[in-house]
Request: fold
Amino acid sequence: MRVLLVEDDETLSATLQQDLSAKGFAVDIANNGVDAEFMGNEEPYDIAILDLGLPQRSGLEVLTNWRSQDNKLPVIILTARDAWHERIDGFKAGADDYLGKPFHVEELIVRIQALLRRAHNLPGKGLNCAGLQLDEEHQQVKLASGETLSLTGTEFRLLRYFMLNAGKILSKSRLTEHVYDQDFDKDSNLIEVYIRRLRDKLGKERFVTRRGQGYIFKDSA
Amino acid sequence: MRSLEQRLQLGLSLSLLSLFAILWFLGQKSMNELTHEFVVSRLEHDIESLLSAIKISADSVKIAQERVAPIYQQPFSGHYYSVSINNAPAIYSHSLWDESLISPRVKAGGRILQTTDGPNNQKLLLISMGFNKQGQNISISLGEDLSAIEVQKQKFKNRFALFSLSGLIILLLLQSIILRLSFKRLELLQTEIQRLGDGKLIKLSDDVPSEVLPLVQEINHLLSLLEQRLMRSRNALGNLTHALKTPLSLLYQYFDHNVSKEHEARTYVDRINRLMDRELKRARLAGKGTSRQRFNASSELPELIKVVKQIYSHREITIDYQLSDTLVPFCDREDMLELIGNLLDNACKWANNDIHISLTNPESNQVSIIIEDDGQGVTEEQIDSLTRRGMRLDETLEGHGLGLSIVNDIVKLYGGSISFVRSSSLGGLQVKIDIETRLD
Reply:
């Protein structure tokens, strides 16, 4: 899952990047409104965390611009301005969630996970799909048999992306884009390696290969 | 006298009245003088011709009757003469019949003018003049009855009075209409000022009489100054608080990473955050009598509910609302959003599924906000304590923390009341708030 973190305080964004990476998110940082708007339009992010008080262009303006260009990127507003009328303005501009500063990282992560599920039309508490239950907290997967398997960081990110997009054809480049941050070397064939590992762990039949197109995670076991 | 209109009315009426009085007086006076002059000059003429009709011979004095105007022959015609020569008894005109005319003897060159009583109760203007004709001292008095002229004069006076009086009344009426119309424009200003107080206007219109324009401009200037000052102080506080929140976030993160350590320091950070939040929100409250946007429940409440539902989208919560038709935009928009937002937020924390909110106005200047939930979490004691402690609140009671204390601040600011009971329809907590919406 790729996250665009828009925050002008570098210490805070660095800490957040660390915390989010630890939870299996690939985080890119923008520290001003103009960069943020550009990156949000150009890169295939899964979610954006947007501060409102930004240099050059306000967060609300960035969000309005995204929405007017039909960019449906799920957005959590993270701001010190959390009076109710400001929240209403935020939601009217097209925000999906709103979190006031100061905040606890766990709260932010819970909201990111919930919003991602909502954005992929998967309501409910955890991420369940095809008999698998993903434990995002501990980066484990629980099989229908009750057996729990731990996953490495990349395996976890990859499986989560597959589960959120079950039934869809996912190209190798799309998988790379959503699993790694923008500094990652996109030519790498590492994705294939990780898919092989997931197949070994969860069963070959779950990941169907479409020659020249990509992979499908089957949504029913 | 307080009313400018009444004062002007009175002043103008008095000056009109005195103008008419002077006019009246002068008119009377000049008319009297005019008739007097006229009569006197006629009498003088008659004296001249009478004098020439006096024939003096060595032994007698005769008046040639044929040369005297016939009016002096008719009995009691109102025109009389008496002629005295030297010390001889006076000769009277035939018109006097057997009456006499008491008249002074005047030396040659003398002239006396007087009014006197004549025959038949006539009022005479009597002119007596002395001459010397052929060595004889002749004193002639001529009298003319003024009553006919008096009647004419009186007629004229009456007409003049009627005319003046109706003129005066018409002028007074006109003046009062003009004044009323002029002051109508001031009444407009008055209603505008009232609307300003009610917050329906942000500034006064410049379209006023030039006399009050400086006043209106001054008021507008003060209003904008006040608004600016308010904005500045609010912004300063807001900026400070917002600026502090990012480092505070960092502190949160620091303590999140060091969970076991420094638990106490963490609670301090929490407290700082709470205090900042509360003061910021308090400072933001507009309260009564500001000229900011009103809260329009029918358009704003659905938006607010949408936001609350989005925040609690991970839970199945339904929020019904009910607005009375007679509700008009009231109080300050941001204050009311903060008030209702916090109440809904609290209700969401406690509710199982259902929340009901209703806004009614039992009286024209009052709004009642009732928010109920179906949560079972609140015990009777807690409801009691919420009521009893008058919401000094209980920042420790989970869910009824900062939110309710800011609610309390807002309610206080608007001079309202807040009460907590168990909801009879939903079973959870019912919060009822009554606020005055008259903005004065």
